[in-house]
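Researcher: Next entry in the queue.
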Amino acid sequence: MLILVPVVATADWEVTISATNQQFPVTIGYSNTPREDYIEDPPEMNKVYMELDGLFWFKTKSSDLTWEFVVSVPDSMQSTTLSWDASAVPGSLSMTKDGSSIDMKTQNSLVVNTGAYTYMITASGSPTVTPTPTVTPTTTTPTTTPVEPDFMLELYPGWNLISFPEPLQTGKNTASYLNTFVNPASHSMWNYNAQTGKYVQMFAESVLTPLDGYWLYSGTATSVPLYFNDGSSIADKQLYTGWNMVGFAGTTSKTADVMLTSLTGSWDYIFGFDASTQRYEDQIVPPGTTATMTPGKGDWLYVHENCVLTA
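Model: Structure for this entry, 311 residues:
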């Protein structure tokens, strides 16, 4: 006698990864109705920082159950312990780094030392769909491109916190222009709205402006030629009490006190991101007379009152 066994859809599941002295945990999962939530809080200097697929703290999927998991342990800690409960996962769940893998179903914790690390988390036992390849539209190179760029924006593999020293020429001032030189490896570019306390995704034609900071992911080390619009001035940037992601105007290095002259008496902390090590840099406090700011880099800036940043 032939017995037909009905196919049962995989039930939704979630796994939360926590860390000792964490800023917040992260959650992965499977669902027929996937959803994702952004990280809305700026990173805290002495907390363990974690994210999924670039700036997400919660991300469930219906297919392609692989997540890029980044954990950054500050210098103030020798190590942190990651922990999770994967008993709800119907199939396998593994975490891989540099070819070494652990079974998250049989191991429920992992000690991570000081530094920044990138892992790949992969689940099975739920439907997997091969993504449809996307076609990148052909970009026509403008005939007015100068032979020599005004500035070379240097990028490292991984996340880069960048800014633009001057207003850029029309046609070379959008995220799509950057993508002709950068392989974002399916990561979006992000800005931060300090008024709402939320990240803002940059789309292909989003205009990039000085005095703003941006998160940009690059799959490889690369350089992006920037061409300035000499006839355009730099607009002031409104800052809001708390954390703001800002850019640095000008093509020569300056000390923090010079860069933040317009904010004298209003700022408390500023720190950047070292893309070469994928770690946050030490914080700078007023007056900032000995700390050098580098053109092309963005920074997190904390102000204790609403104020205006000028170039």
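Model: Residues 9 and 163 are 47 Å apart (CA to CA).
Researcher: Noted, moving on.
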